[in-house]
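Journal club side-thread
Mid-discussion, someone asked how the predicted structure for our own chain would compare to the paper's figures. Pasting it here so we can look after the session.
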Amino acid sequence: MKQRYQKLKRLKIDPNSCVDLVCDDYTGKQYISKKVFKDASPLVIHQFRTEVDVLSSLHTPYIPELVDVQESESEMTLIETWIDGVQLDQWVKMHCFLKLGFRKRWILAIYKCLEQVHQLDYVYVDLKPQNLLVGQGQIFLIDFNSCIHSDATHIASASSFNYLQRENDVSFRLDTLAMYRLIRWLYPKNILLCLMRKTSFEKSRKSFCRLIWFERLVFIFLFICLSLSIITTCTLNQKDPLERYLKNHRKEDFPAAYQFCKNENPEDAIYLWIENEWLDTSLLKDKKMAAFFMQEAVDSNNPEICAYLLEHIPSSILNQQMNLTFTLYQKSGKVPESKWLQAYANTLRKTNDLNHCDQLVAYLFHQEIVISAEQYKVLGQIYIHHLEAVKASMASQYLEYGLFLKSRHIENLTIPSSLAEKFSQDEQWKSLYAFWRA
């Protein structure tokens, strides 16, 4: 013993025995050395031999492994694997929120370990948190010197943790009661565990498993009910954004309320707001809001909605959104005022927007709207600026609209010479230009 195992730390000592942490000089591994003196009481020596017998017969990962047994003239020693862990009661104090998965796995591991002890016709007797070590997420049962044979006449040692072990009869029922006490300690607030059977060790284990499964099913059921409740509540409260806006007409509530309607009726949202008089016209005095509704009206292709916005949006905002306003005029069929047309033509000339210029000419011609020679000239300047991009159909449309203005006795109308030169070979242009010069 002195030659191979060197003491590292004294863990426990009393007049009958001592426990040390030792190191194997051959392998460098650490072990637990349990030593009992030959002059100890017969009961201590008997329990030491019982522990050796139990450890040598058990094969489970949840207990220390017996490594060596030695005997001298003055002492008996057993060497077992050292488990680097913390006593269960201390571990629970350090981890207040003990996970349910840990508790279930540990209890089942203890059940398996005690079942093997029972198969050897032994009763563990001293089951308590201090005899359970937690290390690396696993639980280990130690101190098998408290085991007694099932046919013993009295209990050799009693656990202060489990008051039920004070019974005189020795049977596997003692471990059943101890497990019940331990489970109640690990699940202090679980009322269902009161239903566990206490008559048989095997029935006790099965009762625990059933209760854990029942508890899990209850949790799943409650989770499903809660999820359905949340979904139902959200469904019932979906109208809240619209109701909240209609109740207070607050500007900040509008986006959510309008989006709700658009989700329900993607194509008729703006129609519903105008038809049901939900739209507060004060919103149309805001530049961003007005632009938003103008775009919604354009997308709806509804002439009445376009006309409604042209009537209720202030002219100052309409003049800031010229292209959108023009589109509203196009779709509504309303004829813009001459003053607005002049302003729009000047805007197009400043931006040199050929596409919108061509659309404006087509709209004026289709609606038979008469403009002045000066306004007609302004539109022609845009064509000149984009001469390379101007198509024959665009030029012919511009010329045809000029002929219409001539028929309405508008004087001093001119056609840019650059247009006449570029499209002099186009048949449509040639026929229209002949009428122009006649």
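Post-session note: The chain is about 55% helix and 10% strand.
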